[in-house]
Amino acid sequence: MGVLDGVRVLDYGRFIAAPWCAALLADMGADVIRVEKREGGEDRWVQSVAEGGEGGTFLQCNRNKRSLTLDSTTDEGKEITRKLAAGADIVVANMPAAGMRSSGLDYETLRAVKPDIILASATAYGEGGPYSDRIGFDGAGQVMSGAVYRQGLPDQPIRTVVPYADFGTALTLTIGVMMALFHRDRTGQGQHVEGALLPTALMLSNAFLIERELLGTDKPRMGNQGTSVAPCDLYRTRDDGWVLLQVAGPPMFKRWCRLVGRPELFDDPRFANDDLRWQHGDVLNDIMAQWCADKTKAEVLERLEAAKLPAAPMHSTQEVLDDPHVQAMGFLQRVPFPGAPRDVPIIETPFRMSATPGQIRRRAPLLGEHTDEILGEIGYTGDQVARLRDRQVI
User: What topology does CATH give the domain 232-236+242-313?
Assistant: First the structure.
């Protein structure tokens, strides 16, 4: 039995921030209904991996959900939205405020239908400022947070390909939803929970901003090297592998000095603390690069592990799939999907609970797969559903 059994969620989300929030709620037992346009949401078809056109991120972010197609701009569609909201505990959406109002998904409209409802909305910039009506994807949060300014090569800032602002917003939004459920259980009151890409990205890069405000400086872009410690970098090995090492603090630095056969470096005043080691990082990183150059990746990792130094291999995507720890831990669950050439490796619930663990109970839904079933649950007969389909409402 899931901790959220009996909780119903309407998911009007697209792409990542809102859908992944709803997926986590579904993992924990909530009944999540994904409501999308009759032709399918735009996010369904991005990065296609299945014969039907469904994309990889869609398969990840929409497991454990049922699919209802609906034209919510029609009068009949709006009535269906009201009936769905009347039986829901949580509505999750990501669109600008104007779009929320026009779809009847703004908090005041939803609260009039169901006074204790919880609305969870994800936007690019947050509501109440001069950018609130702008749309934006993950990259907007990255580049406006100061993070990209600090990462990349000296003459080339580089945005991170992993959409961390999107997934981070999903996580913070999920935390907010759970807090709102806890509050509702205590008081009987619903509320509006907001998450946004920019403040999420600011949270993740906050230390850079503190450093700038208090010291008046920005450290330069340094590729894969550390932002405040050394040696720290990705180092190439003899067999063309790459290994990450991050050394911080005197005990770790002393072990590293012994490992590379340079014990005298520990007493060198240039390397007396982390800040000084970072300032002279080129010296330390060059030593480490030379030490790795005549060893295989396996040899480098074995010696670093023996020295109790934090190191990790750079994996290709195939190496991730083949990794024995990833397999033993069951981090990636193989889930069948129609039209996929093989079972889909989907990340499990990204936290584990001993008594009420999350589960992937069902694959992501096909477009409109559960429309008839869901409408039947809110009182529509088979004939009424057929007429709605004839009139292209569903």
Answer: formyl-coa transferase, domain 3 (3.30.1540)
